[in-house]
Write a structure and sequence with these properties.
The chain is mostly beta strands and 86 residues long. It is built from 2 helices and 6 strands; from the N terminus they run E-E-E-H-E-E-E-H. It has a single domain, classed as 2-Layer Sandwich (NE0471 N-terminal domain-like). The strands form 2 sheets. A 3-stranded antiparallel β-sheet has the order 1-2-3. A 3-stranded antiparallel β-sheet has the order 4-5-6.
């Protein structure tokens, strides 16, 4: 039996692991580590709040329960896109 249409891609974004130091985010076939010392908004978040992440427009990450927005470019090139103004 063959499907006529392909199903929805369910692996576009995934939180693959959470530790006391941060969490790993798999998005667009790349894995990124978000340490809590650089992303303190997630440090006191509940696990289900971190896991509930959406990928919007292929580059916009959104955690609706935490009201956090990140652009993937900030994860891939943190030096060019600092999170804190110096």
């Amino acid at each position: 039996m063959k499907l006529k249409t392909h199903g929805k891609n369910t692996s576009e974004i995934e939180v693959s692991n959470i530790s006391i130091h941060g969490f790993w985010l798999y998005v667009n076939h790349k894995e990124h580590f978000l340490p809590f010392d650089q992303y303190p908004w997630f440090k006191d978040a509940k696990i289900n709040e971190i896991l509930n992440v959406q990928l919007l427009h292929q580059t916009h990450l959104y955690w609706p329960q935490l009201d956090i927005d990140l652009d993937i470019n900030t994860l891939e090139d943190a030096d060019r896109h600092p999170l804190v103004y110096k």
